[in-house]
């Protein structure tokens, strides 16, 4: 086991294939959720809103959101690695990508700078105690009355289901692989999922809301969610295989199960989990 969960790496790949998976994932998730910025936040943003995107990856959320927002908004993305950054000359003029580790306090010059902080899909690098410290770090970026929007998938409820086609399998390999990834990450660094409303309330946030949507709510999206899910699950398992600890799947096992999972998907079976969009606002005045 790792001696410090905060030192754990990003368990998915940083590669062209992963960039493509992240781009597809962004569009699939956004379509299912129905908005880029939660309506309760959007109506509060000032004309010259400054927005930070934490764990920005390629910057796709900022790029898409900037197109749908006033040109006076400023978007600054922060990520621990620039390996997936979109080239600077391809970014909108009001979007930047920068180094920043959400597991560590941000520089003081960034404190109180932003009207909104967006975080998405960093669960794969989170463990016990890390959620709380990460929330403290990112809330420091907000102005009084600023908003946080945190989007995550609860993969602890993820499993495969039989599709409506008569040819569909029961999706058992989809379930088996998800359980294997979850159990391995739990063993490695206490991987878990927060109870969002009390988690936010304990941090002093106000006007808390949580939207929960199932990935199979729109039947036409089931194949896309299953495809991006397979990419994430087996990408994580493949990287974990290199550690060669007892109970971990070998690279050969990963590829054998990946092929079976793809057969599940092609038959019509699908992987489903819950999407959580949790928002809250910092107090406008000190208590």
UniProtKB/TrEMBL annotation:
<dbReference type="InterPro" id="IPR029063">
    <property type="entry name" value="SAM-dependent_MTases_sf"/>
</dbReference>
<feature type="domain" description="Methyltransferase type 12">
    <location>
        <begin position="53"/>
        <end position="147"/>
    </location>
</feature>
<dbReference type="Pfam" id="PF08242">
    <property type="entry name" value="Methyltransf_12"/>
</dbReference>
<dbReference type="InterPro" id="IPR013217">
    <property type="entry name" value="Methyltransf_12"/>
</dbReference>
<protein>
    <recommendedName>
        <fullName>Methyltransferase type 12 domain-containing protein</fullName>
    </recommendedName>
</protein>
């Amino acid at each position: 086991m790792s001696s410090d969960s905060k030192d754990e790496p990003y368990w998915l790949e940083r590669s062209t294939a992963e960039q493509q998976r992240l781009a597809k994932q962004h569009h699939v998730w956004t379509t299912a959720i129905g908005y880029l910025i939660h309506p309760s936040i959007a109506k509060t943003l000032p004309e010259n809103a400054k927005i930070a995107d934490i764990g920005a990856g390629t910057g796709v959320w900022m790029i898409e959101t900037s197109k749908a927002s006033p040109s006076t908004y400023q978007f600054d993305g922060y990520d621990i690695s620039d390996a997936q950054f979109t080239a600077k000359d391809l970014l909108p003029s009001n979007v930047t990508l920068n180094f920043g580790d959400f597991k560590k306090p941000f520089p003081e010059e960034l404190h109180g700078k932003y009207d909104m902080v967006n975080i998405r899909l960093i669960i794969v690098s989170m463990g016990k105690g890390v959620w709380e410290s990460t929330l403290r770090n990112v809330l420091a970026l907000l102005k009084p009355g600023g908003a946080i929007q945190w989007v995550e998938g609860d993969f602890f409820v993820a499993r495969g289901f039989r599709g409506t086609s008569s040819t569909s399998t029961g999706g058992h390999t989809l379930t088996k692989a998800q359980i294997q990834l979850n159990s391995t990450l739990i063993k490695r660094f206490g991987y878990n999922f927060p109870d969002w409303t009390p988690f936010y309330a304990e941090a002093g946030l106000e006007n808390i809301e949580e939207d929960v949507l199932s990935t199979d709510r729109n039947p036409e999206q089931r194949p896309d969610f299953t495809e991006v899910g397979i990419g994430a699950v087996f990408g994580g398992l493949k990287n974990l295989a290199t550690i060669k600890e007892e109970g971990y799947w070998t690279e050969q096992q990963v590829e054998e199960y990946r092929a079976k999972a793809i057969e599940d998907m092609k038959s019509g079976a699908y992987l489903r989990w819950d999407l959580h969009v949790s928002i809250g606002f910092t107090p406008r005045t000190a208590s």
